[in-house]
Amino acid sequence: MKKVLLLTVLATFYLGANAQITTPASSPEGSTYSKVGLTDITIDYARPKAKGRKIFGEGDDFLVPFGKLWRTGANSGSIITISTDIKVEGQDLPAGEYVLLTIPGKDNWTVIFYKDTSIGGNMSAHKEEDNQLKVTVKPTKLTESVENLTFNISDISEDNTKAAIQLTWENTSVKVGIEVNFDEAVMADIAAKTVVNDRNYVAAANYYFNNDKDLAQALKWMDMYLENHPKEFWNVHTKAKIQAKMGDKKGAKETAKQSLELAKASERGDFGYIKRNEELIKSL
């Protein structure tokens, strides 16, 4: 009888523990991700709502008073994860996981990348020695109000080397400039993979061509590839463009004519390379 009673109590406890009602969180979880260059950047955070409250300002009437350390979000704050070393506002930040802390101000915000992610929302446990990096940026006013705290990776540059970590809430926007360097990683990739697959010579040549690096090396890589794939008129055309960029107009014109004839003879179509070669020859 005692055994049956115990089982009944345990079963009741188990069912009660698993019968709790699930309701929406007042500050829903959010996440933003972007790749900048070859760097993965993720921000995981809780998104408090304004709900008609005054958010940023001077004095205790505001939810986030100027001059006070803020966990920058709700619940356990906001965690940023960076896959490679980067620069933040010109200063070095190692790859890793950090809590994003801030000290809002009327004219300037202090943004802190904090090493001890176990701090959660307990700002009284903050220690200066655990600040990995501290930078100062200027806030801007928004014309339209943002109800939920929102993080974004914005302003990615055309060459994929620069971007901004952006925070917006209520009528305030804060951007922190970042810069990544992927050149060494690309160079190591080129060295390793061209040995395995000769098509990587084309990728390497294009990388050098598009980023104004050593064009003589780019031409060498393209020649090494075309030695085994001489009829690929699209890559012959790229060789002509490399020669043209090097100032070798005569060589570029001859190579473009070669690409043009190959494109005309292609049974699968020219993919627009007849026109491209004709335009290149004309420009030379």
Integer-rounded radius of gyration: 29 Å
Largest beta-sheet details: 6 strands, antiparallel
Instruction: Figure out the total of helices.
Output: 7
Write down how many β-strands occur, each being a DSSP E stretch of 2 or more residues: 12
User: In percent, how much strand structure appears in the residues?
Assistant: 25-35%
Overall 3D form:
elongated
Q: Going across the biggest sheet, name each strand in turn.
A: 1-2-5-8-9-10
Mean pLDDT: 89
Distance between the termini: 99 Å
Tally of structural domains = 2
Low-confidence stretches: none
Helix content: 25-40%
Structural category is alpha+beta
SSE sequence, one letter per element: HEEEEEEEEEEEEHHHHHH
What does this 3D model show about the protein?
- The chain is of the alpha+beta class and 284 residues long.
- It folds into two domains: 25-179, no CATH class; 183-283, Serine Threonine Protein Phosphatase 5, Tetratricopeptide repeat (Alpha Horseshoe), CATH 1.25.40.10.
- Helices cover 32% and strands 30% of the residues.
- The protein has helices at 2-17, 183-193, 200-210, 215-226, 233-246, 249-265, 273-283; strands at 29-36, 39-46, 56-57, 64-65, 79-82, 86-88, 91-93, 96-103, 109-114, 131-137, 139-154, 162-179.
- It is elongated.
- The model has no long low-confidence stretch (mean pLDDT 89).
